[in-house]
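Collaborator request, handled under Task 6.
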Amino acid sequence: MAGKKSRQDADAKPEVPPWQFISDESVNEEKMLDLAMDDRSPPDDREIAAENQAMLRRQSEFRAAAEYVARAFSSFEEVQKIILFGSVAAPLEKEVPRFRRFRQAGIAVWHECSDVDLAVWVTRLDNLTVLRKARSRALNQLMVEKQIGVAHHQVEVFVMEPATDRYLGRLCCFNQCPKAGKPECLVPGCGEHLFLKRIPSFRMRPEALHPERTLVLFARATT
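Structure tokens returned to the collaborator:
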């Protein structure tokens, strides 16, 4: 009958974009990987090669995410410079990973990138909500155009002061400032500027932005 939902419709789950299922809960991911490969034998050459390819692909996808977000940010006049740093910017090194079979066998593979680190120099802090939304739009566009799913919380934006190169805080991932019930919002100084997140005891190490281990994604021309 018109106007009434069938039981099938009522039980149907709403469609959710696939990138919203992405999580950085590494413990749960590790458990799933261990269950999928419940084998005490060491990984063979095929598995090692596949793991190495997966880590290289992950870095490549994160670099694409960095480029999309940087391009979106560059349209705002207050953004002066954007630098990609961390493991996504540098050549990967091999290490024994957290996955049980590789770890137990002591087999090293390419480093697993966990997120994207962007240092962004801005001349004002009263417009961070616009940057927060631009980050989400850019990652949605990446999914549509390249079928690469990267969640907004996987792109860390380190807000920098142009005149001093001083680290000011991070661009918050919450959709409200402050967010009710979130202990992160109780940190002293957090939210002093809307959507500028403060993390206790965090200090930006100068060597993190060394030119040899970073990529400049945008630099506004000066006249």
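The cover message to the collaborator said: "The chain has one domain: 25-219. Strands lie at 79-85, 94-95, 109-110, 116-122, 155-161, 166-171, 196-197, 215-219. Please let us know whether this matches your experimental observations."
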